[in-house]
Write a structure and sequence with these properties.
- By secondary structure, the protein is mainly alpha-helical.
- It has one domain.
- 41% of the residues lie in helices and 7% in strands.
- It is built from five helices and six strands; from the N terminus they run αααααββββββ.
- Strands 1-3-5 form a three-stranded parallel sheet, covered by helices on one side.
């Protein structure tokens, strides 16, 4: 599995470069992506990766660091407690987990990353094309069986397992594309919805 952080594609005639954010924002985005890449490279256990994802989603969605369980005894705090608990990948079941032919050992190490991908795409950050392309490529390097150079994943790409997929260089996966990944598959070119 490739663990180096993937870059979004350079400019081509068919696919121009995405306009860059302001320099200060770009520096912050790159620092965050490098930090996440280093953490997911260093740790591949479901437990540690789940904690990282939980903490990142908690900060992104709730605007504060994860600080332990909330007081779920108060009825007024129940909805927030439900949301906070659902940010931890260990508290959710993904569709692939219901399949009998799932390679559970491979899946368990990437499940937190799949949850992060989905959670990210449902935030305002997922709509940020420059950041989103780089975020998904970074995660993809840890999820997929193989990831070529300059692969672009747009928002809301659907796949269940990930570990069965290999993406060739310069592949583009358009928004809302659904990928059947029950069997090993090599994808190249442009995958539309």
């Amino acid at each position: 599995m490739t663990t180096a952080m993937q870059e979004a594609p350079a400019e081509t005639q068919l696919h121009p470069e995405v306009p860059r954010p302001l320099p200060e924002a770009e520096a912050i985005y790159r620092r965050w992506l490098a930090h996440l890449n280093a953490e997911f490279t260093r740790y591949n256990s479901c437990t540690r990766r789940s904690e990282i994802v939980r903490d990142e989603l908690h900060s992104l969605l709730l605007g504060r660091p994860h600080g332990g369980r909330m007081n779920a005894a108060l009825i007024s705090e129940l909805p927030l407690a439900v949301l906070a608990e659902s940010l931890d990948p260990r508290n959710v079941t993904l569709p692939a987990e219901m399949e009998v032919d799932l390679d559970r050992e491979k899946f368990n190490t990437i499940k937190p990353l799949l949850w992060f991908w989905r959670g990210f795409d449902r935030t305002v950050l997922g709509a940020n094309l420059w950041l989103g392309l780089r975020f998904r490529a970074m995660l993809g390097a840890h999820i997929f069986a193989g990831l070529g150079k300059n692969v672009r994943f747009y928002r809301d790409v659907n796949f269940e397992r990930g570990y069965t997929l290999t993406f060739a260089d310069n592949t583009i996966v358009r928004p809302g594309a659904c990928i059947d990944d029950r069997q090993p598959r090599i994808i190249s070119g442009t995958l539309e919805r």
